Amino acid sequence: MKSHFSYIRLLSLVFFMFSAHLTKALTWDEMKQFFNEFRKNPATVGAIAPSSSLVGTEITKYFVNAIKQETATKTIHVLEVGAGTGCLTKVIEAIVDKNHDIDIKVDVVEISPEFCTILRQKFENNQRITIHCKSIINWNPDYRYDFIICTLPFNSFESTLMKSIIEHLQTLIYPGGVLSYVAYAGIADIKKHFLWGNAKKQHLEKINTLKSLRKKYQIDARTVIVNCPPIRIYHLEII
Ligand SMILES: C[S@@+](CC[C@H](N)C(=O)[O-])C[C@H]1O[C@@H](n2cnc3c(N)ncnc32)[C@H](O)[C@@H]1O
Q: Which of 14, 83, 142, 210 has the fewest CB neighbours in a 10 Å radius?
């Protein structure tokens, strides 16, 4: 039994070192904080390690393309939902900083006060990025977004919460705006074979809600293998 535990510990350590390597923007301390927050609130955090930088490149690609084509003087509004310790916010910040001549405003909405403290420390000097420490359900600005980058763990949410969040996100985006969200590759399909009764019913409801959303709006989807675990990124044009 004891050797079993050592084996698990060793595997966890290797896994963390690998994740730290993939998530270049994060320090070892932040990796630990992320994992500790996951231990406290597994359903809300929904992942044991932050996303890799390749996820950052893929999930921001429509925003980057829009900047390349941007000729108008209109402000580009970007919303990041569920920033954690800010690995994807770093990617967004790099894009924003590279484009001084374009008016870009980024709102970051994160529910965990612990993560918000880290996010504020990291991004308080950037005038174009604002951290809002609250649930996305309670975020109601008087403008809409061109791009929403969402890494909420829909799979670990209750079905009703997930549906309300998805409906809410659709009210926050401009017609024609792009909502990019993630799901661990294949996990939802595997999970359904290990659930029974009401839990299975709820899980299938969630799968179907996301499927019909994608059927209506999906313009692109990619799997990023270089992430722990591999992740699927969906891009939806909400019209
Ligand atoms: C899977 S983690 C993603 C963290 C980071 N963006 C990444 O890609 O590694 C999900 C994040 O969503 C946050 N979250 C969960 N429910 C939320 C809600 N209702 N509103 C805002 N943030 C939420 C969690 O606290 C957590 O930081």
A: 142
Placement of tokens 């231990």 in the chain: 39
Structural domains in the chain, CATH included, are: 23-238 (3.40.50.150)
Amino acid, single-letter form, for residue 57: T
> Which pLDDT tens digit goes with each residue over 11-54?
655 565 565 555 555 677 888 889 899 999 999 998 888 999 99
User: What are the two backbone dihedrals, phi and then psi, of residue 153, each rounded to the nearest 5 degrees?
Assistant: -85, 75
The separation between CA 107 and the C-alpha centre of its own chain, rounded to angstroms, equals 13
What distances in angstroms separate CA 110 from CA 20, 55, 120, 229, one per listed residue?
22, 18, 11, 22
Which of 52, 45, 162 shows the shortest CA–CA distance to 111?
Answer: 45
Q: What distance in Å separates the CA atoms of residue 113 and residue 111, rounded to the nearest whole number?
A: 6
From 110, 116, 118, 129, mutation site for ligand 1 pocket: most ligand atoms within 8 A of C-beta:
110
Ligand 1 atom closest to residue 136's alpha carbon, by position in its atom list: 20
